[in-house]
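Re-running Flagellar hook-associated protein FlgL to confirm reproducibility after the cluster update. Everything else is unchanged from the original entry.
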Amino acid sequence: MNRISSQQVFSGGINRLQDLNTTLNKTQQQISTGKKVNQPSDDPVAAARILKLDQEVKRIETYQRNADLADNRLQQEESALSSSVDIIQRIRELTVQAGNGALSVNDRQSISAELRERVDQLADITNTQDASGEYIFSGFQGHQPAFVKEADGTWSYNGDEGQRVLEIDDGVTVPISDPGKGIFVDVPRAATVKSATSADGYISDLSVNDEQALRTAFSTPAPGNVPDDLTVTVGAGGQLQITGQVNGSPKDLTPSPAPTVGQAFEVAGVAMTVNDAVAGDTFTIGINDKQSVFGSIENLISGLESIDKTTPKGQAAYDSLIAESLVNLDNAQESVTLKQTELGGRMNAVESTKGFLEDSAVYSKDIRSQLEDVDYAEAISNLSFQSFVLQAAQQSFAQVSRLSLFDRL
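Result of re-run:
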């Protein structure tokens, strides 16, 4: 026969009360914190899964912040580009107006004055800063303006060609900036006479009518390139020789029969008329040059204020100025528009990623909630039952603890 001492009965009762009290306290803590698992010992398996889900939610939230930042930066850039298109369009309208042959000198000066205001507005837009004060078109040199005004009043690019990117999900990066050089500086320039050795001769009606024909002229043996320059040389009897240069290699493009001074002609898709030139005169025509939108507008302003239209040569120079400026402005608009299209693709990608991250966050938080959050109705019911059991155990222990052999004597 096993004998149970009073001490054993007392110790067992105390242990039972402690266990019940611990369970009650745990339920009370769950109700007060709203969490089923307040420490790893409550449920080691669930605690490990909750920890992993916490890390996943933090990862998602970090990427969500990055995606929001990318979206804001891209929207700001798109807004700046849209404003620049509006200004370039207004400058184009002024250029068309300047081409009106009935304008007086004062009219041209008035147009020139507005152009100066517009180019300053364009500079302000290209020097847009983000919320942190970084210049968005300066590349990696965000601490300094993208464009600066030189002592002579012209604007020059002050940034680099760096492009910032941001990771918005695992292995998913998106560019959040674009250097202004590629948008506003490296703009294809209209064909123009770069230099001439002639004292009185000049070229009029210069235009590229068929760029594909120009490429085809240099298509052997490899696919053609637009030549860097065309050189027009006046020979005996006013006959013209035209050569093209691609990477320093010349090619004779002179048609047969050769055109002459005063005759309108087209060669390899390039139309022109050489006027008042004599044997030995040469003209170098830039075909594949680039020029900043600021340079194009500054040249336009300079020409409006300085070209004398009272001579045939002056009138031809003025007409060329207007024609070339319109082409240059169209090219600048196209450069900006292409970048806007690219930005639209990036913004769509960011928006898609934001939607995916939001879905992932909701899913992870829902699973975490199922593991972690307490069911208040169940917990309160458990608390009530546990309180009743503890109270009954306390009453029972009080009765049992008073029993001993001496009570029976």
